[in-house]
Each structure stands twice: as structure tokens, then as C-alpha cells.
Amino acid sequence: MTGQKSKKSQKRITVSVISNLATDQRVIRISSTLQEMGFEVIVFYRNLKGNILPGSYHFRYQKINCFFRKGVLQYAEFNCKLFFRLLFCKTDYFLANDLDTLAPNYLASKLRRKYLFYDTHEYFTGVPELKNAPVKRKTWKLLEDWIFPKLKTVYTVNESVRDQYQAEYGNTIGIVRNVPVTVQVQKKAMPQHWQNKVIMMMQGIGINEGRGGLELLESMRYLPEQYHLVFIGSGNNWQQIAQKRRSWQLEEKVEMINPLPPAELRQYTLLAYIGYSLDNFSDLNCRFNLPNKIFDYIHAGVPVIATAIPEVKKIIEQYQCGICINTNDPEEIASATKKLTENTVLYHQLKRNTVEAAKELCWEKEKNRLIAIYEKYL
Questions:
Q1: Spatial contact of 97 and 17, defined as CB atoms under 8 Å apart
Q2: Helix axis angle, 102-112 relative to 71-88, nearest 10°?
Q3: CA distance 269 to 187
Q4: CA proximity to 199, closest of 228, 233, 223, 224
Q5: Beta-carbon neighbour count of residue 50 at 10 Å?
Q6: So what's the pLDDT on residue 6?
């Protein structure tokens, strides 16, 4: 469809995201689909020293080089630089991803009288990092309270987040889930030290507080030598996991791999025996979460062990592709892991079910929801 319109007649849309574009599969999928629809897409993203470089996409992108990595200064630096890019770029529409890019997009859209779309990937003010930081949480909430009710087109990742925001602000909110594109992946050779092991895997660039990384690590203290845990990704718990791995003398049983490009990550996921998603129940953002990795495991044919937060529980029970536990207590995680590996009949049934689930939970079907949101603006 892109080739059906001349460059001159194409509508331009500018997409903003504070994450590293190379590892943000949602932004890549959505930007690619908008380009396929006939929009001319450009993505502004934050670039930090040492980041993975973006790949080759059908849409254009520009990095915003930033120095600060955390705290107030990281948001201030990026948002100021982003605002001036948005103020002077050629565009017809703006698309902000999450609350940490919303203010500059909103201000630029008002000053330039351009339409603003908002994709909220999570219940932002419910993240565990803000739980014990009331000033920061209040600041983000004031910003959200100011802008959110004024937004005309908003969509999010699942029903729980949608219902919470609709209850707070009254906006009509769409849903576009974080499901993968169906691709054929060439299987990577099993690393020698993984052979004859039960490969347990937790992946994601958001292995943060409340996401169960530390609890999964501790569960290795209750599992025998045949179990090998692999973390792939990053997050604000990453260094703490690394420290505990050393202090608990788990270096031989636990491996940590830094973020990988999506294509390479998929090759590793195929090698897992069990995939884990262990968000806690106490923080709203975790409770409302529907992590990308659930769908990545399913597409790789990997049964899941997950905490029974509502959205994840719905997927696992509907497609019978894993088991849910009601706590992320390390001993319970270890117990569930042993039960699943020892029950080979159940394990292989769950594995077969992932194949059918992947046919339904794919971007080829999900993107129709996105198209329905944007097609009238072409």
C-alpha cells in the first residue's frame, strides 16, 4: 500500500519513544504497520552510549543522543531535546509512546495544531519504582491528570490497563496487544554448557523491581544441578541480580546475557525448556501487566510458568500453554518448575498447545485493531 501514494501526498506521522528502538518490538511493529498503511513514518528515540544499534526497517528513524541514564535528569534532557525536534519537524500527526514522552508531544501538537495519538504501554504511575517515591509519583500523576482527559485517540496493551484509565479519566480507549510477528527462526546451536540441562529462561528489557527476577534467581537455591537459568535483557534489578548471583554462589547455575536484537533473541528463546513471567500482585502496574515475553515464549513453543495476574492468567487458561502460580515465592517457583519437568505428559501437551496459540496470538491478526484506529486519518 505504501507504493500507491506519492511522497508528496503521503501523510507524515512522527513517533516518539524514550526506549532504545532496537529492542522496542512494539514500536517497531506499530511503526512498520503505519508505514505499510501509507503513512510516512519517522521515529525519534533516545540513544545512549553502548546501546544496540537499530536494524533495517521500512520506516525512517532519528536518534536523540543523551548523556543522563537515570533520575530526573534523564527525563528532562530527553524531553527538552525531543520537544525542539517535534517543534520543527515536517509532520501531520504525532504519536507519543508512554507518559515519559507525552508532555513534549502534547505541547508541540497544541503549538502546531497537529493531531496527537497516544499509546500507553502500561499503567505508568503504578510502577513499583514510584511506590516509595511519593513526590515523583505525584509529579507524574499531575502531568497525566493534566493531559490525559484532553486526548482524543488513546490505545493500550490490554483490558486491565484500559479499564483503569477509563475509570480515572473517562476516555474511550482502544486495545492493541503486544503480540509478535510470525517469523521462521533458524534454530541456534545449543551451547555446550547448556546441553543435558533444563534451560529456564526469563527475558526482557524490563526485568525491574516487582517483575520476579530476584525471586526466580533465589529459586535456583532449591533446584538441583541439572537446572540452568538464563536471564536475557536488562532492567533496574539487573545489577542486584548480578550481585546476588555472586553472593549466593550461583555463577555456574545462572547465566546473564545483555540485551540482544530481536532476531537474535528469538534464536535463544527457542532453546528454553520453560519461560518465566513472575510479576507481583501488589503493584498496580505489575498486576495489570501483559508482558511481551509471554507471547515470545508461545511463538517459540516454550511452555510458561507465570504468576496468575489477571491478563496473563486469561491467556494461559484460554490456550492451555503453561501453568499459573499464585505467588512468586522462590520455593513455590522451584516446586512448580520441578513438577512441570517431571510431568512429561503435561509438559508436551502444553508445548503442543503453544503451536495453536501462536496462530491466534500474532501480529498478522492483531494489527487489524491498529489499522482500524488510524485508517480514517490517511
A1: yes
A2: 20
A3: 9
A4: 228
A5: 8
A6: 54
